[in-house]
Amino acid sequence: MKLLLDTHSWFWAAARPESLSQAAQAAISNASNELVLSPVSVWELLALARKGKLDLGKDPQHWVQTQIVGAPVGKLLQPLTVEIALRSEQLAGYENPDPADRFLVATALEHDLVLVTADRSMRDYRALRTIW
Length: 132
What we know:
Structural class: alpha/beta
CATH superfamily: 5'-nuclease
CATH topology: Rossmann fold
Order of helices and strands: EHHEHHHHEHE
Shape: globular
């Protein structure tokens, strides 16, 4: 199964695995699953660090690069495409206005990925397959 990690799931898997649910931990650690990351999550994580909402150390970009290169998620980065951008604005019934969340939902739908997320609005969106 291909799993798209949302921003928090990616960060928690790397830095605070105890913050993940048991189901998320099991899915992420299952070697038969492919872990996918969106560049939107990289951007969002760096933005959270810049705003002081998340501590990634003295060099947040180095932290991100280390996680991408040194972790299984670095093997499959899902590019942000025009199709994903268009789909992010065509999510019937998904009312969350957060652009990062909309891009992640659209990415999962566009590429038939299961989204690993604690976010209730994403998990409640019926068109989307999620794990938490």
